[in-house]
Model the fold of this input.
Amino acid sequence: MSSPSLILFRGFPSKPAHVWSPFTTKLEARLRFAGLAYKTDQGAPPKGPRGKIPYLHIVRENNGEPESLSDTQLISEKLVADGLADDPNGKLTPAEKAHDLAIRALLEEKLYFYQNYERWEQNFYTMRSGVLAALPYPVQVLVGHLAYRKMSATLDGQGTSRFTPEEITKFKTEIWENLDALLTASRQGKETKKEKGLFFVLGGATPTEADTTLFGFIASGLVCAAAPETGKIIRSLPAVMEYTERIHSHYFPDYELWE
Done:
């Protein structure tokens, strides 16, 4: 039996480059870390099973309708359950699994909202023109207004927008500086003066789920024109940049490198 075909819907035009969504790049990293071939398409949130980007179609031989999956963590678990990929956290100790989960939560449940504040509140017009570029301008205005209202309500209810911009910058910087310190320690544990290869956030020989999330947030922060402050912070951190550039060179050699 041949392996099923995978189609990743990224929400952006299908060209060889990282996109603004950290979760799309997270899922791409998961697929490439596992050595899985896939095709990309633009797609749109309303077409996804949970109304969001990214989503994945699994097309099996002699099966008419593709299986449509959403949510990056659930997709990763499905790939393991179907025998298409190994569990990247399968060999971790309980303490390492907790550490891995904490890193993912820090990024996805905390930094994510700080970065959305920067993108949607502080750089709205750039964000609107970037994520809605495929739509005619009048439609961009309408859909962008609705998206802004939804995001603004989310950030208020979640609490991020109740802080000052200076406080949010401080929170973002603190997270990135601590991640840089963690990667510095991981790099020192893996490298010698003669050999400088890949290194991963938990210090192991292979990437874990935390690496998919971390790479997704770094790469999207570097390419997103609506997140200039985040890009500046990331570029100031040597271990973060080395980590990302080495993963990009090894797993994404066909993709454009950020400027």
